[in-house]
């Protein structure tokens, strides 16, 4: 079983995980490597609130009860962990399934190089094996990452062990992503997929669905309505979340209106 692979996490990473992070990694592995990992909105408002508690939400589907949300309260959480919590846990999970590398990471444009730095720091793989797709290739690259331009006239080759792209690039290279058949996909800030009409959503979902392991990360998976979760859950469990209408009726108090002509 996948959960038995927990011991494959490098000691340098596992020893740095806090108790709630270990629980989160185990949860993802126990659920087949497909999960949405999120923390509650508002955790960054005050230092006092952060130090007193941190909420880790792990969302998964359970056939007997529908949408299951498991909540764990974490005391004495430190502010310095917030930017790295999700990256750290996702990297830990990825380290458990090395046999299924290469890995595709889809993230907002501003976080691409941050992801590259985190991977290099914690997995100790050659920087040249970390490929980052940027719109412009100018500027300093002291870390030695493989930089590819999304505006290149020729074909883009995603041949890194870790391939990091932005949501805006996905529609441009969807055919390449589908042909590459990535078995491990991490979608950071997955609330970018909540709009069913957006090009990035329609282009990203087939890539995530096709992956054997998919980890979605977001601190705000649904800002105001449960319907905002649907596309993210569909990406994880397409055989379960087939109909937005059924989902709306069950979780959003959907009401059908009939009009007589």
UniProtKB/TrEMBL annotation:
InterPro entries: Helicase_ATP-bd, P-loop_NTPase, SNF2-like_sf, SNF2_N. One of its GO terms (molecular function) is ATP binding. The keyword Lipid biosynthesis does not apply. One of its GO terms (cellular component) is nuclear replication fork. PROSITE patterns: HELICASE_ATP_BIND_1. Coiled coil: none annotated. Pfam families: SNF2-rel_dom (PF00176). Keywords: ATP-binding, Helicase, Hydrolase, Nucleotide-binding. Residues 26-239 form the Helicase ATP-binding domain. One of its GO terms (biological process) is DNA repair. PANTHER family: DNA ANNEALING HELICASE AND ENDONUCLEASE ZRANB3, DNA ANNEALING HELICASE AND ENDONUCLEASE ZRANB3 FAMILY MEMBER. This is Helicase ATP-binding domain-containing protein.
């Amino acid at each position: 079983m996948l959960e038995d692979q927990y011991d494959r996490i490098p000691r340098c990473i596992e020893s740095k995980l806090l108790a709630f992070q270990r629980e989160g990694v185990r949860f993802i592995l126990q659920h087949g490597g497909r999960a949405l990992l999120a923390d509650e909105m508002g955790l960054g408002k005050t230092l006092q609130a952060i130090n007193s508690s941190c909420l880790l939400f792990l969302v998964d589907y359970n056939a007997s009860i529908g949408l299951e949300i498991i909540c764990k309260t974490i005391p004495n959480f430190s502010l310095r962990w917030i930017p790295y919590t999700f990256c750290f846990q996702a990297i830990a999970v990825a380290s458990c399934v090395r046999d299924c590398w290469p890995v595709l990471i889809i993230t907002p444009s501003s976080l691409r190089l941050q992801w590259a730095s985190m991977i290099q720091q914690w997995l100790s793989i050659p920087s040249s094996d970390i490929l980052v797709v940027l719109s412009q290739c100018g500027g300093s690259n002291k870390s030695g990452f493989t930089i590819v331009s999304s505006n290149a006239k020729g074909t883009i080759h995603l041949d890194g062990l870790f391939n990091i792209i932005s949501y805006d690039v996905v529609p441009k290279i969807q055919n390449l992503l589908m042909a590459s058949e990535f078995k491990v996909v991490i979608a950071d800030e997955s609330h970018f997929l909540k709009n069913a009409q957006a090009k990035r959503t329609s282009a990203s979902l087939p890539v995530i669905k096709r992956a054997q392991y998919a980890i979605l990360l977001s601190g705000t998976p649904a800002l105001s309505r449960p319907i905002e979760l649907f596309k993210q859950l569909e990406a994880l469990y397409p055989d379960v979340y087939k109909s937005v209408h059924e989902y709306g009726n069950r979780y959003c108090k959907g009401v059908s209106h009939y009009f007589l002509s």
